[in-house]
Automatic annotation (TrEMBL):
Domain of life the protein comes from: Eukaryota
Coiled-coil residue spans: none
UniProt-recorded name of the protein: RING-type domain-containing protein
Pfam families assigned to the protein according to its UniProt record, in alphabetical order: FANCL_C, FANCL_d3
A GO molecular-function descriptor: ubiquitin protein ligase activity
Matching InterPro entries: Fancl, FANCL_C, FANCL_d3, FANCL_d3_sf, Znf_RING/FYVE/PHD
Organism listed in the record: Ceutorhynchus assimilis
Gene Ontology annotations for the cellular component aspect, listed alphabetically: Fanconi anaemia nuclear complex
One record GO biological process: interstrand cross-link repair
Span of domain FANCL UBC-like: 205-301
């Protein structure tokens, strides 16, 4: 067993494991070949006159099939005194088979990244935070806009050398349009300037969404991000509206979708239809939205108490007994005034499918799980 010390020194990542109910071993791990760790797995198949036979179980995918076949042939022809001997034999063969790995030289990119980052921090003196990762793979920065909102961005470095535009904005919290994607650039200052210009352009949008968050009861998103251009707003018991804003044209009339029983939706829909002609581009967009809906202010949802004894809290799905499913709120409300239970589309669709409900075009109809009156939901793919 004197070879074991040499085995550990030469192949520290190779492990030996005894095969159950046998005196043979399984050999697996990595050996260093031409500056790269190569995985290999062998199985001891026989011991004849103190010498062992081995079988190749697996070879690293970096090698083609012909190399694996050659090693299998070597193992079939020869026997070995110990594990170290067979590994040395395979290692020697792989050294001849595997061409020398050409390690990519990123020195020029490293120099450029360091230079660009240095110029970047000198140019933008009002940065709140900035950091160049230790491996030079990315830059993170944050800045405060004219209304004291903080915006963060992550810029990654492309080391593939396919183009000179090595800097690319990869993470940010802004609404995005296909035609307005940030294009990679070789100049860090120019790229960050594009980000700042986008922030400045979106100031009216930020103002409006913050006004929604301050002055309405927002049901969804639960924790709004700046990239969320919609708000589901509580209008009363069993009725809400989803207001979707065009971030890049906030003065355009927003899109409204009402959720609730038909008799409740009808009143708001009538107000909206009657006031559409009065919409004009104006500075106070929030007031314009109130005027469209025929409201002086958005109603605030009262905080309910002593609900811990209820099976289902207000707004929760009456099938899964939860408020959110896959980050979505219930969208279907029973039209029966004595019921008006909430359901997720997914829950109600599954309920209908299980009961062989009737499908007509893109909708499926069945009995409400609570009151058994007819309700419907969209057919889900």
């Amino acid at each position: 067993m004197d070879y074991l010390l040499d085995l550990v020194l030469q192949y520290p990542l190779i492990k030996l494991k005894a095969i159950e109910k046998s005196d043979k071993v399984l050999i697996r791990g990595k050996m260093l070949v031409k500056n790269k760790d190569i995985f290999i797995a062998l199985k001891q198949t026989a011991i004849i006159n103190g010498r062992s036979k081995y079988k190749l179980i697996k070879l690293d995918e970096d090698f083609n099939e012909s190399t694996a076949i050659q090693i299998k042939q070597i193992l079939e022809k020869e026997s070995f005194q110990n594990v170290l001997e067979v590994l040395n034999k395979i290692h020697k063969h792989l050294e001849t088979e595997k061409p020398l790995i050409n390690l990519e030289n990123h020195c020029e990119i490293y120099r450029k990244v360091i230079h660009e980052y240095s110029e970047f921090t000198k140019f933008f003196l009002h940065l709140k935070t900035s950091k160049l990762l230790q491996d030079l793979s990315a830059i993170t920065a944050s800045i405060t806009d004219s209304n004291y909102r903080e915006h963060s961005v992550k810029i990654t470095v492309d080391f593939t050398q396919k183009t000179s535009d090595i800097f690319e904005i990869s993470e940010f919290d802004l609404p995005q349009r296909i035609q307005d994607t940030f294009k990679p650039n070789e100049n860090l200052i120019v790229l960050f300037d594009q980000f700042l210009a986008r922030i400045e352009r979106l100031q009216p949008y930020f103002d409006l969404m913050e006004e929604f968050d301050r002055n309405t009861t927002v049901l969804d998103p639960e924790k709004p991000k700046r990239s969320d251009s919609h708000r589901r707003i509580w209008l009363g018991e069993n009725i809400s509206t989803i207001i979707t804003i065009d971030p890049y044209n906030v003065f355009q009339r927003p899109n409204f979708k009402f959720l609730g029983p038909e008799y409740l939706v009808e009143s708001y829909s009538n107000h909206l239809n009657n006031n559409l002609g009065n919409w004009v581009c104006q500075e106070n967009i929030f007031q314009g939205i109130l005027d469209l809906l025929g409201l002086e202010d958005f109603p605030k949802r009262p905080t309910t108490k002593n609900q811990h004894n209820l099976l289902v809290d207000y707004g929760e799905c009456s099938i899964c007994f939860s408020l959110r499913l896959n980050e979505k709120l219930p969208e279907v409300i029973c039209t029966n005034k004595r019921c008006e239970k909430f359901y997720h589309n997914e829950c109600l669709y599954g309920w209908f499918v299980a009961s062989n409900a009737k499908i007509v075009f893109n909708a499926i109809s069945g009995n409400c799980p609570n009151c058994e009156k007819t309700i419907s939901c969209p057919v889900l793919e």
